[in-house]
Design goal:
The protein is an alpha+beta fold. It is built from five helices and four strands, in the order ααββαββαα. A four-stranded antiparallel β-sheet has the order 1-3-4-2. Helix 3 (about 85-100) runs antiparallel to helix 5 (about 155-165). The N and C termini lie far apart (about 35 Å).
């Protein structure tokens, strides 16, 4: 890829890129390549930006580094009535995240939709859909299912989800 996402580059880390022009160039390189052409699937795209202080793409493992075994990353999307502002982020950190942690879910990357114009129209982005997205890693499907079951049985989670106001 033509650009390495960076928080320390002086940019705002929009969607993991230093700026929207760097994003456009990197996407041109990726989506014009043979891997994407053979496996394309891009009809449900949100333009996201990191909103948590712990999300730093510079801290990721090097390409090709071994991990700690099998597992998968789950992505949860909450559609909101309004963009995720500071009050929403406080609500997530103080009311939702502790309930997730109690169920054994550690949020890896909280993200929210980015309001910037899409600088790469070949990749259609859903616009005007304020969303909050979080990622979590699980060792296997059974652990994921257990965590979701624990959440479903937790009245604090039900109350917190109801406050989201979206879908």
């Amino acid at each position: 890829m033509a650009a390495r996402p960076s928080r320390s580059s002086g940019g705002d880390n929009t969607s993991g890129f230093a700026d929207m022009e760097v994003r456009r160039k990197a996407l041109e390189a990726f989506y014009g390549g043979p891997v994407w052409q053979a496996n394309r699937d891009n009809d449900n795209v949100l333009l996201l930006k990191p909103v948590g202080p712990d999300f730093d793409l510079d801290q990721r493992a090097p390409v090709g580094a071994g991990g700690d075994g099998p597992g998968f990353v789950a992505v949860h999307t909450h559609n909101l009535k309004a963009p995720a502002d500071a009050a929403f982020l406080r609500f997530f950190r103080t009311e939702m995240e502790p309930v997730l942690q109690a169920a054994g879910i550690n949020v890896l990357a909280p993200m929210a939709t980015e309001a910037s114009a899409n600088t790469f129209p070949r990749l259609p982005v859903r616009e005007n859909l304020p969303s909050f997205v979080w990622f979590a890693r699980f060792p296997d499907a059974a652990a994921y299912d257990r965590a979701l079951g624990d959440l479903a049985r937790n009245p604090d989670w039900t109350k917190a989800e109801a406050r989201l106001g979206g879908g």
